[in-house]
Design a protein that fits this description.
By secondary structure, the chain is α/β, with parallel strands linked by helices. It contains eleven helices and 14 strands.
Amino acid sequence: MNHVFLPVRMGHHTLQNRLVMAPMTRSRAELDGTPGPLAARYYGQRAGLGLIVTEGTQPSDDGQGYLTTPGIYTDAHVAGWQKITAAVHAKGGRLFIQLMHAGRMSHPDNTPHHRQGVAPSAIAPNTPMFTMKGMQDIPVPRALSTDEVRQTIADFRHAARRAIDAGADGVEIHGANAYLVQQFFAPSANTRTDEYGGSIENRARFAIEVAKAIAEEIGPHRTAIRLSPGTAMWGIDEGAEGPDLYRYLVAELDKLGLAYLHLMHLGNEALLADLRKLWKQTLILNRPGRPREQIGNDVASGLADLEAYGQMVLANPDFVERLKTGAPLNDADPRTYFGGDAQGYVDYPALDEAISA
């Protein structure tokens, strides 16, 4: 495990260790998308990790899916994020804001403009979503026109610039977990007949153009992407061509010289090995449910440069120190994952607090 405690170079940044806080939706922003009053404390508590990837952050009104998720496209949003980046940097940490467009995973009651969700095609995910009125079925989204797809790319570019204005070290494009970018990949969500649908190359085009636009705007060393090959949730089915799409996509993205590729690995070891060979920059690997005793294995083997962890970091603000000392870990409380106040957000005890209690 000692490998993960060593500094590492990632693009233009030197990280203090090889452990990453994975992005986790917490739904504690203000109604206008400004990060909540406790967010700087929450992220600052966890700045001992080499890199923090923030919760999914919408790049536009259309991009919001869930209640009280943060945005990064208005002056108020920027001011809120500036407090967070300052708190993380004060402790020597690095922070990338994850840009997440929910696409069809949205409900009109959850967005500022209360409009129908948008997606590659007018196909509903056939799942309910929590709203202020309780659980409601997600309605059929409106298919983006070709011009609107290009405007959405411009929205990502604008949000990336605002993230840098807010002091972020970079942005991570959310291309995973059944949200808009991955919706373009999946034939079950994308039946388009223009240049963004049909062939592998066309279905990968949106992700590549978003990455290119952001890299042009803020630099490739500040641009990253998260992918989850093989995700089968909320109506996403990438089909038999799925692995080949990712081989093509990663090879094309590699040409851009991005800061890192963040993979949520779901078990296809052959595909993971291929993507590792195709990707020449930093690779972050997130294996959901990885037990403590396996932390560091992927870095030690050379399969990954960094490893990302979610729930363990959520519940342990001093995650790195606990690993170094062999101290026990707090258990995460699922009841407080989404929404609420300080409980289950900034009140998990650090090791010194737990010992003195």
